[in-house]
Specification:
The chain contains 16 helices and 12 strands. The chain is of the alpha/beta class. The strands form 2 sheets. The protein has a 9-stranded mixed beta sheet. A 3-stranded antiparallel beta sheet has the order 10-11-12, with no helix packed on it. Helix 8 links the parallel strand 2 and strand 3. Helix 9 packs parallel to helix 11. Bound molecules: pyridoxal-5'-phosphate and iron/sulfur cluster (SF4). The site of pyridoxal-5'-phosphate has 7 residues, from strand 1 and strand 2.
Amino acid sequence: MSINIKETYYKDITDEQWNDYKWQFKNRVKTLKELEQIIPLTEEEKEGIKKSFKDFKMAITPHYLSLINTANPMDPIKLQSVPQDKEFYTGPFDLDDPLGEDHDMPVPNLVHRYPDRVLFLITDQCSMYCRFCTRKRIVSDGSHQVDKTILSQVVEYLHAHKEVRDVIISGGDPLFMEDEKIEEVLKALREVPHIEIIRIGSRMPVVCPQRITDDFVNMAKKYHPVYFNTHFNHPFELEKDAEIALAKLADNGFVIGNQSVLLKNINSDTVIMKALMHKLLKNRVRPYYIYQCDLTSGIEHFRAPVSKGIEIMEELRGHTSGLAVPVFVIDAPNGGGKVPIQPNYLLTQSPDKVIIRNYEGMVSTYIEPEDRNCKCSTSAQFQDPSKKSNVGVANLLNGEHMSLYPHYTDK
Ligand SMILES: *Cc1c(COP(=O)(O)O)cnc(C)c1O
Ligand code: SF4
């Protein structure tokens, strides 16, 4: 039988304390001694918790802990938050920095990989440390906080890079910082005139929804357009408190997206993913990405095969609202960036037609127009020579080149 953690272990805690994120942060469960009083643990988990001290710490908010079904040893909330001994196994292809982020950092904490947007890591702390975290190498060690010096270097870089129009604030979890610190960052970014949108990536609505306070939304909305990307992986994570947090963000004009990670035995299942996508939409959250697990050391036990992700996509597209269909991506190792993966719908093509199939298996012919040249009269008004796409396959389409060569191929 499952016990209600909030009503047993936390029975003396008032609602006021429970709903205060500072209480939640301060009372995060960080030791084996504490955790074993609250939920039953396997030997594998006890070993994992002991070893995690050295490296990628354990920390679980009382809120997130209270979502665990104690009767299920494979509970999806527990699997995401409680270390296992398996974390200390490194597979033959595992990497510390699987996305090559350190390589793409022109200034500290800033990753500039794509032509027009940057990723700004403002802290390495989180309220809960997800055991499958891709940025384990930096997260939780406490030495990657943004300070005034770094912030001014980043702003200087952005001023000099007029092609950047989108800044993603991430970490760690940026909302682990105090509002005043976050505001310093938002304000500094808004002083760069060519920054069009700001995105905040945070798992707080999932692991500590109490953090989405009126003060926070009232502060952040001054810097609109601000997009808010969160990270739900399982329908059980989206309960009452999370709903309140999401409503607060939506009511205050934040456009909310969600990215999930495909996690073996947690959400590697079509019916679970579909239920999650529907629940997100009901809360005005648009599913954005499903990520294939990166090749981060120690997360082999979380990796589902790519084929499982494709199967999930097959059972979403067409079967349910298009709004419920995110893009499934592999973030290619060594800085390859996000690559979308989906079932094949284009069966074949000839100069005058394409043959396509739909989700039901119906195969159709779509006839191409006779005159296939396209020429928009307003195109010149949108062309900025400094922003001409000169990257990748787009180069072949615009006629600049005939081939692309990997740098190690002799031309
Ligand atoms: C994911 C990511 C982005 C944002 O990519 P979008 O596809 O625009 O959401 C930007 N920079 C880096 C380094 C990223 O990993
Ligand atoms: S919230 Fe994000 S950065 Fe923090 S541990 Fe989880 S996945 Fe990693």
